[in-house]
Amino acid sequence: MSRPFLALAIALTATIGCSGGPPSSPAVTVLARSEHCGLNLSWQRIRASSELPATLPQVGIFEDSTTLVISMGSQPTGGFEIVLPETATRNPDGLGIRLDVRLDAPPPDAMVTQALTSPCALIRIDTPPDTPLEVHFSGTAAEARNVR
Question: Fewer beta carbons within 10 angstroms: which end of the chain, N or C?
Answer without folding.
Answer: N
